[in-house]
Amino acid sequence: MKYAFKLLVAAFAAATSLSAQAHAGHDHPAHPHPGQSSFGDAATAAAPEGVTVTNCWIRALPNRLPSAAYFTLSNGGDRDVVLVGAQSKAFGKVMLHASKTVTGMAAMVHTDKIEVPASGSFEFAPGGHHVMLEKPTSTLKIGETLPITLWFEQGRAITMDCAIRSAAG
Ligand SMILES: [Cu+2]
């Protein structure tokens, strides 16, 4: 029993470090993500009841390096909600990410869903969860805003304007 557990742990560690490595280059075609087209039409999707997003900002990095968006997700409703993805017409690739330390090194891992309990909130912040923004369709301009849509279970969506700030914040 103990041996089997150790094996499991080893397998998990290997898988985690593999995905972390693949992630370092931010280009992993062998690892398919749910395509943005799998979401519905953000313009007509209703917001999940009682859910609001505040203080969204994008940390812009120079030279077309991947940028990240941060915000606070508040669930004032009486049901748990589950965030399942994000999209933006301003970026070719948008993903939910978490930052983790894998064998002593900072790494980012893809996150499929984030649950926000009723009357709860969830913080997307530097060093933690973020929306990864890759392949910008135009140069990011500090001070301007870009829309990002958050997708929740049951086809619900919230589109927010996010202020572009410099890497220093
Ligand atoms: Cu990331």
Description:
The chain has one helix at residues 2-24; strands at residues 51-59, 67-75, 81-87, 91-102, 105-110, 114-116, 121-124, 130-136, 145-152, 156-165. With 169 residues, it is mostly beta strands. It contains one helix and ten strands. It has a single domain (42-165), classed as PCu(A)C copper chaperone (Immunoglobulin-like), CATH 2.60.40. 14% of the residues lie in helices and 44% in strands. The radius of gyration is 17 Å and the shape is globular. Strands 1, 2, 3, 4, 5, 6, 7, 8, 9 and 10 form a ten-stranded mixed beta sheet that branches. The structure holds copper (II) ion (CU).
Topology (elements, then pairings):
Elements: H1 2-24, E1 51-59, E2 67-75, E3 81-87, E4 91-102, E5 105-110, E6 114-116, E7 121-124, E8 130-136, E9 145-152, E10 156-165
Parallel strand pairs: 1-10
Antiparallel strand pairs: 1-2, 2-7, 2-8, 3-6, 3-9, 4-5, 4-8, 9-10
Copper (II) ion binds at residues 68, 97, 108, 130, 132.
